[in-house]
Amino acid sequence: MLCCFSAQAQTLTPTERNIVAAVRQRMPTAEKLLEQLVNINSGTLNVKGVREVGNVLQKEFEAIGFKSDWVAMPASMQRAGHLVAHRQGKKGKKLILIGHLDTVFELDLPFPKYTRLNDSTATGQGVLDIKGGDVVILTALQALQANGLLKDASITAYFTGDEERQGAGAESRADFIARARKADVALGFENASNLHTVATARRGSSTWRLTTSGSTGHSSGIFKPGVGYGAIFEAARILNSFRETLSQEQYLTFNPGLLVGGAEATYDETKARGEVVGKTNIIAPTATVAGDLRFLTEEQKEAARARMRTIATQSLPGTRAEITFSDGYPGMGSTPGNQKLAALADQTSRALGYGPVAAGDPGSRGAGDISYVAQYLDCLDGLGVSGKGAHAAGETINLKEFPMLVERAALMIYRLTR
Hints:
Elements: H1 14-38, H2 47-63, E1 67-71, E2 82-87, E3 91-100, E4 115-118, E5 121-123, H3 127-146, E6 153-160, H4 171-180, E7 185-188, E8 197-198, E9 204-214, H5 230-246, E10 253-262, E11 264-268, E12 273-277, E13 286-295, H6 298-313, E14 319-329, H7 336-352, E15 358-359, E16 378-380, E17 387-388, E18 396-398, H8 402-417
Parallel strand pairs: 3-6, 3-7, 7-16, 8-15
Antiparallel strand pairs: 1-2, 2-6, 4-5, 5-18, 9-13, 9-14, 10-13, 11-12, 17-18
Helix pairs in contact: 1-3, 1-8, 3-8, 5-6, 7-8
């Protein structure tokens, strides 16, 4: 596990000052690379675009002495695969640095190119989540290489190709988990909430599907014995009971994102699309609800699922309900090792003159790849760039904080691997 770092270490050594100087020298080139990456559409399902982003980064990593592998996925998964850049040394902690190549912006969405809005802000697809973070990883390592500080370091930079829309099957994260288990520390470069916040914990996510059924007939007979309440009232009862029973628990959220119900109702999970036919004077015999469930720990997830199952079994007269769950990203709880990494980020930031850093609220973040390995090693996330509007048209990067975050990352990597 991570060793303790002295709270008194608030100044930079001559070597660390050289690292900072190397970062600052490289920032114009770093922004040009960011522009190049942003101007490649790499929505998860755009396999060609995701691979192109990976090819650009692969060349950059090989130029500073990293070996690289491309981890291919089965053709049936329709995913580009993952880029892994790595080098082996004999000193310090073994690190895995985590980014991803894909964005949420698929080819059918508008594609604004990288644009500087002013001296401190730029916009473009994926500039915040996560291409800015990918460039933070590379630029920090370039600064260390320029000072001859990588030759004894063991570092793996892992860029998944389907973080935003993970491919089905155990293959999707098998190699990632296997490599991470050989490391001591995982640093994630998902976007930072701001310069002063990091993530020692992240919520996991999973999905659920509720199906209700009941007797159909003329609407004038609803509620009567032998007819009952119909499938839509049963779905409404269950959803409202979820809200009443579970909505106040810290870090737990559940969202019914789609509901279809009527005389005839179908739901296509692969397309996230429903079709329904019904009339106001027909009691609906079927309804389907699809939703997500977010949680901090596996214990919280399982407890919530148990309560949701119990609620679903308490059916209204004349109705039946079934709820099923599918796992997605696990949760990442805050551990003593994670908190020590946050302390390192704080000490490094203070030494740079950028002020304190603290762990942010896990409830403010979504799920991420680092959660898959959180049970095996010390983890810290939110080390990427800062900005606004992730996953939305017009997302931005804070260019004033961009070099500061690269400097902090470079010094953290140096201090962990020295």
